[in-house]
Amino acid sequence: MANQYWVRDRVIQWLRQDPTIGASALKKKLEEKYLITLSYWIVYNGRQLALDEVLGNWEDSFDYAFAFKAEIERKSPGSIVEIDYEKVGSKIRFSRMFVALKPCIDGFKNGCRPYLGIDSTALTGKWKGQLASAIGVDGHNWMFPVAYGVFGSETQENWGWFMSKLSMAIGSPPGLVISTDAGKGIDIAVTKVFTNGVEHRECMRHLYKIFKKRYHGKVFEKNLWPAARTYRKDIFDHHYNIMKAASTKAMKWIEDNHKHLWARCYFSTASKCDYVTNNIAEAFNNWIKHDKSLPIIELMDKIRQKIMDKLFQRRNLAMKLNTKVLPHIIKALNAKSRGLSGYSIHKGVGHLAEISGVYKDLTPWRHVVNLEQRTCSCKKWQLTGLPCNHAISLICSYRGLEFEDYVDTCYSVSKFKAAYEGWIEPIADRTHWPQVHLGFKLWPPQLKRAAGRPRSRRIKAVDEGGTKKRKKCKRCGQLGHMQKTCNETVYDSDAPPPAPPKPKRNKTKKKKEAAASPSTPKRKKPKKMKEAAASPSTPKRKTAKKMKEVITEVMPSPSTPLRLQHAPATPSSPFDLNCSPGALTRR
Fold first, then answer.
1. C-alpha distances in angstroms, 82 versus 119, 220, 507?
2. Percent of the chain at pLDDT exceeding 90
3. Number of Cβ within a 10 Å radius of residue 296
4. pLDDT tens for residues 526-548?
5. Are 47 and 15 in contact (CB under 8 A)?
6. Are 325 and 411 in contact (CB under 8 A)?
7. If you average pLDDT over residues 329-333, what whole number do you get?
8. Residues 137, 143, 146, 147: is their CA dihedral positive or negative?
9. What pLDDT score does 340 carry?
């Protein structure tokens, strides 16, 4: 009979190759290979035994924390690995950890744009802590991991500790932008640590998600996102004033609770990054989602290994490039140039010109483009570092001008090579790591496990495509109900009125109406006679006993004398009910 030890011996090799394989996948592989039926919990327990042999015991794994730190600092001098611990009772327990590898620090400073997306994701292993990360953007718009770490929960103290270590690693490059969500802990930590004019942006997706829980209406759906995405201040004011006229209270709530930058028109032009969301950090969270169940030291080493592979792949790609600007940038600009039509160009002195046209609603527009200063009045070129459509149309109107001469240097091949110039030294398993004697045993953090089975991925909202399609109200725009039952407050004057309240049910029984003349009671038609009248072609014979019951039902009182009389349409038998209704009458 297969037990957990039998399972352990047969899955240990599979777990050495991939420790993240779940019990369900192992159960399916074992049943297909050995043609047997196994219990899920036997496979689960066997997997845990095998992981203890592959990764070591949970409590003993923290003994290698400082050995991992010493090995990283020995192989990659200049890397920052910080481990914090606290005394709980009589034991010294692990608290938090920060890792910033030297090639990642140098690559961010030398080859990436000064932009960092910072976020955290919940761990799914035995310790339900948080995995924080700081992610940059290279010239190819690919994520560039700069630093990562773990701590217990998203508190102001933990985020302040993480930000202080991050500031120690990268300093404060000119034009640095930090994009976060709307969490209070990380909000205060960024402001407290980076005090030298760092631009703090707030993720618009998180802001809108919180906003729509308080305020609803089509006016916000039509204007809030366009206000955040526009590059021009006058268009932002147009959308903002529409919302403010609809609800002053809603706009005041945004001004009071979301004071960081969330609109593109207020972004600085130094970072050459126009992101209004923090999706670059979410991309990292999705990249490591299958590794979050590993023990802490194994997780730190696994992320280091994945970064090492990514740097190797992109460094090989960079060595093959010999152009001035990254090829995908030129390809995108060429694609835009083929789709331009209806633009009127009026050239002035030098490379200064007016570009005019009409919108889809036939409203005219006009912008001024200066190729020498690389500016356009639409503001997109200054903010992204890439020529906008107006600049592309003017560049294509001249002979001998190339797109690569008007693209910012952050998209150059030289910057891309500088970002991936360094490499991470491979390290052996933990049996080869230096022995570090601390004079005390480092115990794991105290576990605070919630009820139920732990999730490996977060629950997505409906607007993120995480659940099935739900009904959307045409009046207020919310999900889960229809317009005819909507009673929500709507700030749109053109919206239909709310649904009327449901009428109360009258639970009192209706009284039966009395007969108009009690001397002439209402005659009831027997059910059997109705059925017989409905099908006269199929006569049915009734016994005398049943006929007596039918006659008794027709009689108003036993004392009333009745006599059968044949109607003009005489039936074939005195008990034939297939005759006309006048066959049985009172006299």
1. 19, 45, 72
2. 53
3. 25
4. 544 444 444 444 444 444 444 44
5. yes
6. yes
7. 94
8. positive
9. 84
Q: At what angle do helices 296-319 and 102-111 cross, to 10 degrees?
A: 40
pLDDT at 199: 93
CA distance 134 to 155: 17
Tell me what pLDDT residue 349 has.
86
Question: Hey, what are 167's tokens?
Answer: 């500031």
Closest CA to 311 of 172, 105, 134, 170: 105
Whether 576 has a pLDDT exceeding 80, the answer reads no
- 232-240, Cβ contacts within 8 angstroms, sequence gap of 24 or more: 232/265, 232/378, 232/379, 233/265, 235/265, 236/263, 236/265
Cα–Cα distance measured from residue 571 to residue 563, given in angstroms and rounded to the nearest whole number? 16
Which residue in 59, 72, 200, 86 sits closest to 148, CA to CA? 72
| Cβ within 8 Å of residue 544, ≥6 positions away | 575
Q: What does the mean pLDDT of the chain come to?
A: 83
Q: H-helix or E-strand containing 482?
A: none
SS3 74: helix
Quote the tokens at residue 421.
């110039």
Q: Tokens 């209070």 belong to which residue?
A: 184
Backbone angles phi, psi at 96, to 5 degrees: -160, 165
The reported pLDDT for the residue numbered 265 is 95
For residue 203, how far is the Cα from the chain centroid?
A: 13
On the 0-12 / 13-18 / 19+ scale of CB atoms within 10 A, 200 is middle
Q: What is the pLDDT of residue 513?
A: 44
The tokens for 425 are: 């030294």
C-alpha to C-alpha distance for 476 and 492, rounded to whole angstroms: 9
Name the H helices within 377-471.
380-384, 389-397, 413-419
Residue 539, pLDDT score: 45
Q: Which two tokens stand for residue 260?
A: 């960081």
**For 146-198, how does the pLDDT look when each residue is reduced to its tens digit (9 = 90+)?**
999 999 999 999 999 999 999 999 988 889 999 998 877 898 899 899 888 89
Across the strands, what pairs with 149?
98, 132
Residue in the block written with tokens 């948080």: 130
Angle at which helix 184-193 crosses helix 156-170, to 10 degrees, equals 40
- Where residue 89 falls (left for φ over 0; alpha for ψ -120 to 50; beta otherwise) is left
pTM of the model: 0.73
Q: How far apart are the first and last CA of the chain?
A: 90
Sign of CA dihedral 122, 123, 126, 127: negative
Q: How far apart are CA 415 and CA 419, in angstroms?
A: 6
44: closest CA among 82, 77, 3? 3
Structure token pair of residue 200: 């703090």
